[in-house]
Structures are given as C-alpha cells and as structure tokens.
Amino acid sequence: MFSTENSVKEYTGYDVTLPLIKRAQAVIEIFIGVDEIDIEDPSDLLLLDKITSYQAAYMLENEDIVFKQAAVTSQGQTDAAISFDVRMSAPFIAPLAVMACRGLTFNRSKSFKTGKIFQLPARVDWKKL
Questions:
Q1: Best CA proximity match to 54, nearest among 44, 43, 62
Q2: Alpha-carbon distance 8 to 107, whole Å?
Q3: What is the mean pLDDT of the chain?
Q4: DSSP-H helix ranges across the chain
Q5: Contact 44/105 with Cβ under 8 angstroms?
Q6: Which residues are within 8 A (CB) of 43 and not within 5 positions of it... i.e. 6 or more apart?
Q7: pLDDT digits (tens, 9 = 90+) for 48-81
Q8: Of 5, 41, 10, which is closest to residue 25 (Cα–Cα)?
Q9: pTM for this one?
C-alpha cells in the first residue's frame, strides 16, 4: 500500500477507511501507469504516499464522480452538444494528486549518452578504407 489511514489524516486532515485507500491507490496506479510492485525508488514511494492520500480524501466526498461521471469540458443545452475532456484526468483524479504526479522520477524526461558507433576517428580518409 502506498498510504495508510494515518498518512491521509496527516496530509489532508480527513478520516478515511482502508478500503477507500485501496480504491484510491487503484485509481492512482491506473493514472500513472505503474503498479506498486514495480516502484523501487524511495522518493517515488514517499510521493505516492501523498498522492494516494490526496486521492483518498478527494474520493471521500466525490467517489460517485470518480466512478460514474463522464469527463466533459463543456455541455450545451441546444442540440445536446458535449465536449469531452481528452486529458481524462478531471474529475477523476484529485487536482493535488495530478500536480504531485509530475514529480515522480519515472515521469521525468531522460537522456542517454551514446558513443561513436564504430569507434572511428573523427576524420576518416575513406580512400584508405
């Protein structure tokens, strides 16, 4: 588990139950695309404790929204025009959880340094090859 009842109380001030924390963690795992068992970085685990706490507190009052609401950006009365939210984060994920997910190490950009392909010198006389 990413979080506990005590962590949620500490970070948010809300009292939640363990089953709600489990549901919140499942939503967060879907959102970040990584399961708990695959996370090894201690800083990610600390941040995921906070993220899950924020999500559990959000779901305490909004659980119906998380599981039943369609993600829309606007809704019109004439001809029933609806614009769906293509980012698919609101209203399902707590806003603080979305902001905190940006700090996860596996969500950051990565760069790799590569060497020369054939270890040839910078200037090659192709006539001698």
A1: 62
A2: 24
A3: 80
A4: 5-12, 18-32, 42-68, 95-101
A5: yes
A6: 105
A7: 999 999 999 999 887 877 776 666 666 666 666 6
A8: 5
A9: 0.69
CA distances from 20 to 29, 40, 101, 123 (A): 14, 24, 20, 64
Burial pattern 40-63, b for ≥16 Cβ within 10 A else e, equals: eeeebeebbbbbbbbbbbbbbeee
CA dihedral of 61, 31, 47, 102, whole degrees rounded to 10: -110
Write the single-letter amino acid at 41. Answer: D
CA distance 129 to 125: 7
Q: Residue 117 pLDDT > 80, yes or no?
A: no
Which residues face 75 on adjacent strands?
82
Instruction: Find the helix packing angle between 5-12 and 42-68, rounded to 10°.
Output: 80
Q: Is 94 exposed, middle or buried (0-12, 13-18, 19+ CB in 10 A)?
A: buried
